[in-house]
UniProtKB/TrEMBL annotation:
Belongs to the class-I pyridoxal-phosphate-dependent aminotransferase family. Keywords: Aminotransferase, Pyridoxal phosphate, Transferase. This is PLP-dependent transferase. One of its GO terms (biological process) is alpha-amino acid metabolic process. The keyword RNA-binding does not apply.
Amino acid sequence: MNDYVRGSAWRVPVTACQPRPLSAFLSRNAQRRPASAIRSLLPLEQEPGMISLLAGKPNPATFPIEEIAVKVRLPDDASSPVVVAVTGDRLQKALQYGPTAGTPALVDWLAQLTSSLHGRPLPAQSSDSTKPWQLAVGNGSQDLIVKAFEVILDSGDTALLQSPTYPGVLPALCVGQVNTVAVESDEAGIRADALERMLARWDVDEKTSSLARPKLLYMVPTASNPTGTSTSLDRKRALLRLARKYDFLLFEDDPYYHLSFEEATPSLFALDGQDSDHDQGRVLRFESLSKVMSAGLRIGFVAGPSVLVDAINKYTATSHLQVSGVSQCVAIAVLEQMGHRGFLQHAARTADFYRRRRDAFERIAHEILRAEPPVAEWTSPGGGMFLWLRLLLPLNANTAEGDSFALISTQARRAGVLAVPGVAFLASSGGTSTYVRVSFSLIGEEDTAEAFRRLRRVILDL
């Protein structure tokens, strides 16, 4: 068995084959965090015959809300919305303090969907410690990702990040003083071959030899933000193999899973459960209802090994306690009305909606940005909401390709067009990028054309 040391840095041998217990991945903060004195006892209130003098719950008789009703467009007949009302006992529970991991009806509905889509048998109805995986609801998936970072990573630990990466995760890693190392990606997603070379040379390469070996790889496998590219099945298998060989976790952030314009490939979470010859605890999978149902509901969920999800729930219980019960009750009322089949129909139609917007957006981009002389190039996204434009900028002394930051932050803004410069998506600070991310989710065709004309003029005026 390989030796390992818990300390200020995560140290493992170059060829680590013996998997360590998942509890060894927990950060010092996670190991020190005590259980909530009150919330840890709340499940006992459900025992038959129990009389609870426990929690300081407000009396629902004082709540002025009598009903919550929403109109819902169902996929079978979107022209005739139906009213879904939340009343009675379900409403009282929604207005009251609720379970940390989420409303049981919503957790069960999402767990059944996850089991069906990813081929993972539902967790046994037993104590959490014996379940192969479990699911918890969060205040959006980013809430869960940030908490997962906190319960896994200590100051001085190392996290691998798909590059370019989603910038929303970077502040938490910066504040936590975590070392971040970029892993290349291309049109087929994250490059497993580049990662394998990096890991094999970790202790001798001057770029990594002073760093602790990585505890996790964070990636967006489907329609990655910002590139819109997806990681291929072969690469997913290779990444899982590397995670087992070098003993790190895979954070599978998949908010665009239902917004893919291409044929879906099995998720890392699915692949992790297929091979009975290996441990099935490498993947934490994060999903969200924001892109297909409502961003304002703030409903995300995580599925993964129980010991890791328990640590996230423990963090929630001692911070903001739970996700809004009202948001959860609205979400489950709508989802139950749709059913799993109806939800997937709605998701497919949503993906088609964005595919048509992409097509129109790209057509206008070709007409304006690729006109002679061309000022940008890109790979057509296979899903999501973005184009990742490589601007054809004049060269300067500081970079071989030019840098979009000043142009987008200053000249383009003065010209009346906003976009996100590529440096925002770099895994580490101090670099430059000739790229820019532009979104087609909301903008109309007339405004798209005018925005691209303004951007073109700014580039040509350099």
